[in-house]
């Protein structure tokens, strides 16, 4: 099976910003409300990496985040399942709306998404 490619159209305050496409891992997956860590082969090597958000070991769900830097201290803690294929500049633009307290200065949303 080929690794799927998906995209998000990003909007800022309901105005289109640009899109980001991701190449996902197509390996075996476990479905459910929470599921076990599948593997820690892929590492947090730099901007554009997609890890699962979790609340500790074996608590993966549908939440994820996009790395904006190398964060190797998460290796072995968060399962990496993909990376940005196109649109790192859009990810960087979204990051500029952030702040140290974790809140964004403008509302950033995914306006549309689909598998390519």
Could you characterize what this model shows?
- The longest helix has 8 residues, at 88-95.
- The protein has one domain: Cyclophilin, CATH 2.40.100.
- A hairpin with a 2-residue loop joins strand 1 (5-12) and strand 2.
- The model has no long low-confidence stretch (mean pLDDT 87).
- It has a five-stranded antiparallel beta sheet with strand order 3-4-2-1-5.
- It is built from one helix and five strands; from the N terminus they run ββββαβ.
- The chain has 116 residues and is mostly beta strands.
- It is 7% helix and 31% strand.
- This is Peptidyl-prolyl cis-trans isomerase.
- PPIases accelerate the folding of proteins. It catalyzes the cis-trans isomerization of proline imidic peptide bonds in oligopeptides.
- InterPro entries: Cyclophilin-like_dom_sf, Cyclophilin-type_PPIase_dom.
- One of its GO terms (cellular component) is cytoplasm.
- Belongs to the cyclophilin-type PPIase family.
């Amino acid at each position: 099976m080929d690794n799927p490619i998906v995209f998000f159209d990003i909007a800022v305050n309901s105005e289109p910003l640009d899109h980001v496409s991701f190449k996902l891992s197509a390996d075996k997956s476990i479905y459910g409300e929470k599921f076990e860590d599948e593997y820690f082969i892929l590492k947090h090597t730099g901007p554009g990496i997609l890890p699962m958000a979790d609340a500790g070991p074996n608590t993966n769900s549908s939440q994820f985040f996009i790395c904006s830097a190398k964060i190797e201290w998460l290796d072995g803690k968060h399962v990496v399942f993909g990376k940005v294929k196109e649109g790192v500049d859009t990810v960087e633009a979204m990051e500029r709306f952030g702040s140290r307290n974790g809140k964004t200065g403008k509302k950033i949303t995914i306006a549309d998404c689909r598998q390519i």
